[in-house]
Amino acid sequence: MTTSHAIPAGLVLALLALLVLAPMAGLFHLSALPGYQAADLRIWENAYLRRVVYFSLWQALLSTLFSVLPAILVARAFAMQPDLPLRRLLLGLFALPLVVPAVVVVMAVVSVYGSDGWLPLGRSLYGINGILLAHVFFNLPLAVRLLLPQWQAIPQHHWQLGEQLGMNGLQRFRFIEWPMLREALPGVLLLVFMLCLTSFAVVLTLGGGPRSTTIEVAIYQSLRFDFDPAKAVVLALLQLGLCMLVAMLTLKLQRMPEVEIAISTPHRNRTNLFRWFNLGIILLATLYVGMPLLSLLIDALRGPIGETLGDLRLWQALINTLLIGLSAALLSVTAGWFLLQYSASLAREGRSKAAKLVDLAGSIVYVVPPLVIATGLFVLLSPHVDVFDWVYPIVIAINALMGLPFVIRCLGPAIRQNQARYHRLCLGLALQGWNRFRHVEWPLLRRPLGLAIALVAVLAMGDLGVIALFGSTQSSTLALMIYHQLGAYLVAKATVTAVLLLLLCLGVFVFVERFIGGKSDAGN
Amino acid sequence: MLEIEGLEFAYPSQPASSMRFDLTVDDGEVLSLIGPSGSGKSTLLSLIAGFLPAGAGNILVDGKPLHALAVAERPVSIVFQQHNLFPHLDLYTNVALGIDPSLRLAPAQVESVREALVRLGLEPLQGRKPGELSGGQRQRVALARVLVRRRKILLLDEAFAALGPALRAELIELVKALVREQEMTALLVSHQPGDALIASKRTAFICEGRVAALAPTAQLLTESEPPQLREYLGSQ
Amino acid sequence: MVTVLSRIGAVLVSLLFCANLQAATPNLVVYTYDSFTSDWGPGPKVKTAFEAKCSCTLELVGLSDGVAMLNRLKLEGTNSRADILLGIDTNLTAEARNSGLFANHGLSLQASALPNPWQDDLFLPYDFGYFAFVYNQEKLANPPTSLRQLVDNSEGPTLLIQDPRTSTPGLGLLLWMKKVFGEESDQAWAQLSPRVVTVSKGWSEAYGLFLKGEADMVLSYTTSPAYHLIAEQDSRFAAARFEEGHYQQIEVAGIVQTSQHKQLAREFLEFMISEDFQKIIPTTNWMYPAVAGEAVVPVEFDQLIDPRPALLLDETSVARHRKGWVDEWLEVMSR
């Protein structure tokens, strides 16, 4: 059975390699041509670059810890309160921060924590504080959404036994919850680490100054001002290498999943004390995520709503945004599906190391900066085709690539469990391919599939980095339009457009989750 | 002695499915519960254990009511069909948890855990994790835990359903011995009437949320009344 | 099989048809920067105005900024579709010249509004501006009157600036400081550093933060207050006039050597220095038009500060030293 999964997975891996390695090779090759800087690979001897690497790692590690550790508490709180009203809406809200273009996030964070804001921090905002504030804003909600399904995977009997054996809260966490968490946590840590490492505008603007330079900035600089493609490629590879190191560490921490298959219903926390604690945590988290979004909304309501919405071009951009987002999501989820099926079958056969490597291959491509991929692709393609005709397919492809790690996080555990549970049954019934998908995989994997599609769709819809690289003849997507408006002094208009983008993403998220994920009685 | 008097319950999402149980089990007895799926057997066990809140009615253990007691305070041990063990803890710890979840055991308690493991033939496997054991071995560990807990009531919720006939018989004999020694009262839910024959002098037939019939096992298994019983047995 | 072939045939025929149409109206491709082509920039009006005069289509392609534009052209080399590059500034002209990708435009600039005479065979300016620190008059009563004063006064206003590695105004400030302080610019930056609230990636972030009140002054253009005056009827914002003068940014356009439509490109450049184009610039690009003319500049521009003397470092200097200067700046600011 592995072989039948291996072929499409192999294709996906080959495509990934092509999409990532070929452009880098193309760029590197440029340095051998006249008119370009010759390759100088003595990166490590450069004190400035050393500092850049240390800082990149430092801020990424700190941001990851500050995002994921509280997320455990918040996810737990959500898991313990399955009857929470507005649960679906709150969780939908938690999907939004990733959508907001970085520039807008900076504005929103400043609105709340800046000198004129609701919780002014003053000058200390611009430094590691600001970076952490923004990164936690982005990543805590994501981590919560990725960790929450873990509680669903805990067998109900464990809760019951825990109750009977008289475990207190700490013991319940230690014996029942932590083992399940431990399977998902390394993956989430790695994903958040990658997001924080490659964060660009946030670090540069809220970081306070060049002290806060990251590797991404150095890559950006070498590809633009210096036009030193070899250095850009080497730095990109360095970034990739660093992430792989971190990934290896997290792989070591990952444990085997539960031995017996679980069918579970949510655990109702009946102790009043914990109930208030959990509600308090949910409230705090909602406020933290909600405040910047709320400030944006308030600013937008004061802005030229009629004028902005009356512009036909806005609606054209909206349609483009939707199309790009959904296409990228479908592409990403399809590619991820094949990879994960293969990885799950490897895991089922006990080849867990190979399985983790496949997962890693799909995730780690995120770390290669889109600028590098885009420029490299450009170098490779432009002698043969008119690149401008291919802008949308390339943008969709790169966004799909960027969405892969999310697909792997969302869908991976569910697919693994599905295979472990039903594979033998399907073999016995000769249930394969489309039929298997239709009867076994679709109904049971709908929810994580819905989450994955929704997540990648909103990510792609909010993307600015990729589409801005290729050149445009107009503001073809909402994110681009925001960027153009900001560049034309039209801050108020940009805010209105940004809120429209947010609402669109919220709508898409909730709709896709419900439509694909199906209704569920437990919420999440 | 376990007395269940007029114990009522209905699932909040299905108010029409109201259940009412009346039952008495003597000390040292293993009472088997058989019946079709969804009839309320597991629900009854959950009510006794305290996992579900009862409506009206009483559960009395040696005359003392249970309903005011929290789950952990009830003199109950339960063994499920699976997921009895915590997968990342070794056998010793899994059993020791039955005495004290903080795992701070007095030397005498440590000794009792050792003895339980020996009794159940698990001594050589002490350091292993559940993932390395067979299904039968895992259920033995669960029984070892029951042994050290020394609680009055033992509930077995299809605990042996996934095991082969020989193993099942062996473990049921073990349960009987345990129940006799510690003067426990046990309820055994099973889908195999054969289990009831080995385990119990008396068997109860649960149907539609009620104890529809209660009789000596051999007699019950050949009964033709009520019709649901006939239907249930006929399908076996 | 037959149906497939006939379908391919149909597609080919329609392509040819389109190609024929193309041959009828030539397509002039102009690479420019994003804010030019955006719906709120000069692009749409320029397109309408030019297409009314020529019998052609004007295709404006927006590439993030000047640097990206030039890099793209270099990457494309002889395969480029571009006929014209519009929007690099004098910091990039040396590099552009050395690339050999541009052709002589053969035009002369009459009635130049530039403070200094313009002589360049390859590039023609279309607008220019001056960098300045913009502030809110209601919040800052006594702005510094010189760059030196800004630097020396340790109790002075807080600042928002941009990163010279990623932003043109950022580079502009760097060069401005270099021009005024020369060898001592390191010290000047060290003195300035404590008052810099943050160094942002681009102009938008810095200006946005300024509007939110995060600092007293922001590095922008002398023409920024004009936007607030004209579009928002808001007279609170002003630029601080420095007695040493303000650093200049001159934006130019050039004809690409490999263009298939050199004559048409030349016509475009002529159009670019004519009133029809120039009058669009002030209220869409918010810069000064390169060509002097009565009807061109809006009245409100008179309220702006007089930024002269216009400071500018020559392009060869900039090209040679830029990287070193940026590294120096990095060193000082990272302490």
Descriptors for this entry?
heterotrimer, A: 524 residues, mainly alpha, MetI-like fold, C: 335 residues, alpha/beta, D-Maltodextrin-Binding Protein, domain 2, 14 helices, 12 strands, globular
Q: How many domains would you count in the coordinates of chain A?
A: 1
CATH topology of the largest domain in chain B: Rossmann fold
Helix content of chain B: 25-40%
Shape of chain A: globular
Q: Give the structural class of chain A.
A: mainly alpha
Low-confidence stretches of chain B: none
**CATH domain class of the largest domain in chain B:** Alpha Beta
| The named CATH superfamily of the largest domain in chain B | P-loop containing nucleotide triphosphate hydrolases
The largest sheet of chain B is: 6 strands, mixed
Strand content of chain A: under 5%
Detailed description of the structure:
The complex is a heterotrimer of chains A (524), B (236) and C (335). The radius of gyration of chain A is 23 Å and the shape is globular. Chain A has helices spanning 2-30, 47-80, 87-93, 102-113, 128-152, 156-164, 169-197, 201-206, 215-224, 229-253, 272-301, 305-309, 312-348, 352-364, 370-381, 391-428, 433-461, 465-470, 478-487, 491-517. Chain A is mostly helical and 524 residues long. In chain B, strand 9 (202-207) and strand 10 (210-216) form a beta hairpin. The termini of chain C are far apart. Chain C is of the alpha/beta class. Mean pLDDT of chain C is 86; it is low at 16-22. In chain C, helix 8 crosses helix 14 (315-333). Chain C folds into 2 domains: 24-128 and 249-303, D-Maltodextrin-Binding Protein, domain 2 (3-Layer(aba) Sandwich); 129-247 and 309-333, D-Maltodextrin-Binding Protein, domain 2.
Outline of the structure:
The complex is a heterotrimer of chains A (about 525), B (about 240) and C (about 325). Chain A is mainly α and about 525 residues long.
